[in-house]
Amino acid sequence: MIDFIISTDKTKLDIKAIHDFLSNRSYWAKGRSLETVKCSVENSLCFGIYNMAEKFLGFARVVTDYCVFAYIMDVFILEDYRKLGLGKLLMDYIMHYQSLQNLQRIMLATSDAHGLYEKYGFRVTISPANFMEIVNKPR
């Protein structure tokens, strides 16, 4: 079995690879600018997953106040490393991360990975009529 490393050390993140994936290959962040990616990384709790040679393989970030709320965002594994269980490994790590325990609410949005997130207790919002949003053009 191949071993993997998950780190919250932002200096290890491959910002160019994160930007490339989000801006060009994700369905949720098409066109996101490099400046926006840098800003979002700077202001979030970030998780990078790497092989033992410290090659960047995937990413997730969490926007949180560390006591009441967290929103998991931008979760991805690079295409060449999918089907190895890395998405599950990354989510296991995030869901057991000490600073994120005992929150009142953890949220995320997905169009295609409901099965993965249901394994961690996520479900369709109980009261969708209670939630509102503003959607602006990407920057």
The CATH architecture classification is 3-Layer(aba) Sandwich
Strand order of the largest sheet: 1-2-3-4-5
From the N-terminal CA to the C-terminal CA, the straight-line distance is 40 Å
Unreliable stretches covering 5 or more consecutive residues: none
The description of the largest β-sheet is: 5 strands, mixed
Question: The CATH topology, please?
Answer: Aminopeptidase
What is the C-level CATH assignment? Alpha Beta
Mean pLDDT level: 94
The count of helical stretches stands at 4
How are the secondary structure elements laid out?
Elements: E1 4-7, H1 15-25, H2 34-42, E2 45-51, E3 56-64, E4 69-77, H3 86-95, E5 105-108, H4 114-118
Parallel strand pairs: 4-5
Antiparallel strand pairs: 1-2, 2-3, 3-4
Structural write-up:
With 139 residues, the protein is an alpha+beta fold. The protein has four helices and five strands. The chain has helices at residues 15-25, 34-42, 86-95, 114-118, and strands spanning 4-7, 45-51, 56-64, 69-77, 105-108. The chain has a five-stranded mixed β-sheet with strand order 1-2-3-4-5, with helices on both faces. It is globular. The mean pLDDT is 94.
Question: What tags apply to this protein structure?
Answer:
alpha+beta, globular, Aminopeptidase, 4 helices
Please sum up the structure shown.
With 139 residues, the protein is an alpha+beta fold. It has helices at residues 15-25, 34-42, 86-95, 114-118, and strands spanning 4-7, 45-51, 56-64, 69-77, 105-108.
